[in-house]
């Protein structure tokens, strides 16, 4: 029995129809769409290693391997590309600076293992327990604080080359409001290209590493280090990222189910297990943590092709690109000014996703328990609070996340006991794609 049945004549998609995960177009069209998915994910995926200092080729390699693994674990029924998750930038940056890359990789492994464990529980018990632990006010606070905690990092890069950074930032914003559809969804990628061209004109790009790199070769692998003295304090810093990955994966599955078949939702647990396994594998050997990609949802919505065959092509193409150290070196040559401009927008957008969770779920901020859940956790993150006991240190992300959980649940229990206005929460929301057309918005 073939893995995919041919959709229609294999060349076109009739109005009102979609190519389902179990179907495909003819192979030339499938290869072209798979390559398009690689282009869609490329900008966001390479930004994470460039910002964190991880090897670009290694991240791209495990992005492709992770995508293929995802398709296997989900039994070839859920189309998705696994690219680098922005949620890892804050803990990876802090962990690398304080303990080194090996400890940061151990944190990524820990997130992957925990996410896979959550996936197994969801597969058999459903999402209800997560909804109770992480109601919208808590979920929004934790997602927002991960982004806002990075504000000083954006400024450090911005002030090094302010003109290039300003042009890059303006380009990102302009492309996001100028274009609809696919181009709007990759506004960050387009902004990086504009900024890179400006940096070239100003002589700010260093090509020395690219000149010395080979055209073909294996990626640069690094091993996770669980034995370093500060590793376990680093791991604590990574754990809030699990919430973001849960929300991103749930949002991806719901998006595919809405466009194809509601039965796709039953694969939510497998999606979490697959992303957890891919993140664990990447972390063990030097890659960035992975997640499902909103950019690829945009490509599928535009083409109406949800065939998993296209993602097998995309995964293979990513692996082949990763086998060129020269391509990785060119990508890694993006200068500080470009990074400063794009991360000013990017880190703020991560924070805005958290606020959007509050807005979408109509969080009642007239209730003190909700006010302080958000207020205290965000100030902790933005100010960069730390706590240290000997070699063990807790960073602002884990302190802020713990504060959100404790303030909400303990405060809510007291408010319910005293009848002073408890909050009943609600289901954890799904994080949708950044950029592009607003959902259900009319074209004017």
Automatic annotation (TrEMBL):
The keyword Cell membrane applies. It is found in: Cell membrane. The chain crosses the membrane at residues 46-73, 80-98, 104-125, 137-155, 161-179, 186-203, 223-246, 309-332, 338-359, 371-388, 394-411. It comes from the Bacteria. Pfam families: Xan_ur_permease. InterPro entries: NCS2, Xan_ur_permease. The keyword Zinc does not apply. Keywords: Cell membrane, Membrane, Transmembrane, Transmembrane helix, Transport. Belongs to the nucleobase:cation symporter-2 (NCS2) (TC 2.A.40) family. PANTHER family: PURINE PERMEASE C1399.01C-RELATED, URIC ACID TRANSPORTER UACT. This is Nitrate reductase. It comes from Microbacterium gallinarum. The lineage of its organism: Bacteria, Bacillati, Actinomycetota, Actinomycetes, Micrococcales.
């Amino acid at each position: 029995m073939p893995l995919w049945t041919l959709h229609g004549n294999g060349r076109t998609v009739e109005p009102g129809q979609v190519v389902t995960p179990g179907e495909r177009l003819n192979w030339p069209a499938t290869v072209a769409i798979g390559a398009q998915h690689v282009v869609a994910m490329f900008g966001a995926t390479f930004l994470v290693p460039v910002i964190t200092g991880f090897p670009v080729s290694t991240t791209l390699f495990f992005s492709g391997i992770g995508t293929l693994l995802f398709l296997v674990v989900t039994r070839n029924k859920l189309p998705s590309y696994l690219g680098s998750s922005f949620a890892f930038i804050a803990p990876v940056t802090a962990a690398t600076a304080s303990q080194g890359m090996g400890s940061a990789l151990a944190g990524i492994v820990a997130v992957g293992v925990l996410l896979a464990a959550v996936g197994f529980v969801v597969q058999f018990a459903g999402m209800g327990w997560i909804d109770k632990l992480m109601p919208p006010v808590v979920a929004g606070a934790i997602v927002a604080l991960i982004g806002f905690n990075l504000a000083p990092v954006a400024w450090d890069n911005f002030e090094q080359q302010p003109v290039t950074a300003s042009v890059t930032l303006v380009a990102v914003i302009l492309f996001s409001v100028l274009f609809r559809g696919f181009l709007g969804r990759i506004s960050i990628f387009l902004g990086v290209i504009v900024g890179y061209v400006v940096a070239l004109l100003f002589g700010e790009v260093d090509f020395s590493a690219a000149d010395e790199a080979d055209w073909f070769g294996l990626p640069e692998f690094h091993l996770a280090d669980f034995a370093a003295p500060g590793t376990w304090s680093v791991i604590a810093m990574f754990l809030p990222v699990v919430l973001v990955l849960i929300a991103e994966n749930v949002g991806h599955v719901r998006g595919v189910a809405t466009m194809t078949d509601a039965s796709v939702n039953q694969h939510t647990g497998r999606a979490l297990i697959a992303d957890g396994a891919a993140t664990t594998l990447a972390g063990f050997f030097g890659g960035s943590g992975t997640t499902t990609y909103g950019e690829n949802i945009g490509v599928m919505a535009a083409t109406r092709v949800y065939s998993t065959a296209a993602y097998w092509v995309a995964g293979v193409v990513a692996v082949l690109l990763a086998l060129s150290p020269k391509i990785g070196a060119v990508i890694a040559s993006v200068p500080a000014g470009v990074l400063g401009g794009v991360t000013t927008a990017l880190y703020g957008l991560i924070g805005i996703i958290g606020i959007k969770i509050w807005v979408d779920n109509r969080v009642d901020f007239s209730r003190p328990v909700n006010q302080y859940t958000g207020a205290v956790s965000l100030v902790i993150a933005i100010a960069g609070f730390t706590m240290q006991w000997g070699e063990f240190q807790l960073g602002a992300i884990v302190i802020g996340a713990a504060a959100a959980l404790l303030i909400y649940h303990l405060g809510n229990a007291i408010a319910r006991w005293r009848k002073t206005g408890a909050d009943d929460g609600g289901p954890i929301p799904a994080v949708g794609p950044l950029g592009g057309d607003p959902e259900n918005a009319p074209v004017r």
